[in-house]
Amino acid sequence: MAPRLIITGSTGYIGARLAATARERRFDVVEFGRGSGAKWRIGDEPAVSDLEGAAAVIHLAHSWATEPQAAEENNINISGTVKLAEAARAAGVPHFVFSSSTSSRREALNVYGRTKFRIEQHLTASSAAPIVRIARIGLVYGGPRVAMYGLMAKLAGLSPLLPMIGLSRKVQPIHLDEVAAGLLALATREDLQPQTFVLAHEKPISFAAWLGILRRSQGKGKLHFIPIPLGFALFACRMTRLVPLIPTVDPERVLGLAGAAPMESAESLRLLGLNPADPTMALTREFAQTDQEESHGEAKALLQYLGITPTPVQLQRLDEGLRREGLSPLGLSPRLIRNPRLLAFFEPPADHTQHRLARALYLADLASEPERYSAKKSGLFGAVLAIAGDVLLFPLRALLAGRYR
Predict the structure, then answer these.
(1) Does the keyword field hold Membrane (predicted)?
(2) What is the dihedral of CA 195, 200, 201, 205, to 10 degrees?
(3) Which residue of 72, 99, 297, 316 sits 20 to 30 Å from the alpha carbon of 199, by its own alpha carbon?
(4) 65's torsion region: left (phi>0), alpha (psi -120 to 50) or beta?
(5) 33 and 153 share one domain
(6) Can you give the pLDDT at residue 194?
């Protein structure tokens, strides 16, 4: 019978990968949360029947709705975590893994770090202490470009000149897959004593070096920085909530970075059998694979826009042509890749032959040429409809065509 593993916060960046990894390893994963079978939210009293028979509980959920300075008895992140841990021990669950952070400090600048520290204190003083294992997690990267990792990758890739704070602060990157492996080890290993473990690279690097790695891994040049004071950065965070079309930055993230300090992780990594990868190598490989997948998706969308059901031969021809002409990837949005007909709004006028999208569509037409000439012609009615569509769409195309030039 597969061991039963309960995960809270399974829809988050780390939680989703952890749940998927656990299932790959043949665990019977039970997800606690609003979108899961167990209708539980942090702060709720868990049903004993939902906990009984579990090999472990891994607690990743965190409520951001709690008032920053809420008293401990009113902070559901504190009371809710202790309640869940004590219920797990009462139900006979042998291990309770709490996901903390390397920002967990009594004097942390951000509320998140101080709250995590208070939770750790309450857990170790609770009746659940004998089953508690605390995982202080470093700067997580890899996998889907979401959460803090996605924001940093986007900022590093936007421009060679980046205003930033905390450039000399030391950070400890660790890959998402390594975090999942570490959490599963904490949940299942019987030879580990209840204590605090640090899941982070043992060799800290400066935040400036980390951003440089993110940029170079995307195949872009050197990154130059404009150091800015913390007060200005916090003001800019507030402005991102008001200005559309730019990433929103939570001040908590900025304060967490401003107060970052490395933690000793070598012993934890040794005990858990983890050997974190070099971030440069891991990210270069990941970005290259992602770009290849995006390029394939773009080639498929271009052919579908031309009314062609792509064949493997056509896709290969077009992929090679786009790479040869320096058009891969084009940077089509996921929405356009899923709905190729929307490309009609971005196709440039016929005389814009050097437009990147126009060149890509020309290559798509060439890649499908043998099959297209053997296909049935659309006839006069189809030609009239095509011309009418071009006339009606011309104003929009003139406005939007610059998006992919």
Answers:
(1) yes
(2) -130
(3) 72
(4) alpha
(5) yes
(6) 81
Handedness of CA 306, 309, 311, 312 (dihedral sign): positive
Whether the Cβ atoms of residue 250 and residue 187 lie closer than 8 Å to each other: no
Distance CA 254, CA 251 (A): 5
Asked if residue 193 and residue 70 are part of one domain, the reply reads yes
Measured distance CA(52)–CA(61) in Å, rounded? 20
Q: Which of 197, 64, 200, 196 is nearest to 123 (CA)?
A: 196
pLDDT digits (tens, 9 = 90+) for 110-137: 989 999 999 999 999 999 999 999 999 9
Range of the domain at 317: 285-404
Q: What ranges in 91-206 are assigned the alpha helix state H? A: 111-125, 147-158, 176-188
The whole-model pTM stands at 0.75
pLDDT (0 to 100) of residue 380: 47
Residues 343, 205, single domain; the answer is: no
Q: How many domains does the chain have?
A: 2
Q: Quick check: 199 and 134 in contact, CB under 8 A?
A: no
Cα torsion for 295, 334, 209, 180, to the nearest 10°? -100
DSSP letters spanning 188-241: H-SSPPS-EEEES-SS-EEHHHHHHHHHHHTT----EEEE--HHHHHHHHHHHT
Token pair, residue 253, equals 């993230």
Residue 205 near residue 171 (C-beta atoms within 8 A): yes
CB-count burial class (<10 Å; 0-12, 13-18, 19+) for 154 = middle
Mean pLDDT, all residues of the chain: 86
pLDDT digits (tens, 9 = 90+) for 164-211: 999 999 999 999 999 999 999 999 999 998 899 999 999 999 999 999
Are residues 219 and 358 both part of a single domain?
A: no
Q: Report the amino acid identity of residue 166.
A: G
Two structure tokens written together for 363: 């290559």
Q: Give the span between the Cα atoms of 213 and 211, in whole angstroms.
A: 5
Q: How far apart are CA 142 and CA 178, in angstroms?
A: 10
Indicate whether 333 and 269 sit together in one domain: no
235 vs 258: CA distance, rounded Å = 14
Residues 124 and 173 both lie in one domain: yes
Show the tokens assigned to 265. 């992780």
Last residue of a domain, one of 248, 277, 306: 277
In which residue ranges of the chain is pLDDT below 50? 373-378, 380, 404
Based on its alpha-carbon atoms, the radius of gyration of the chain, rounded to whole angstroms, reads: 26
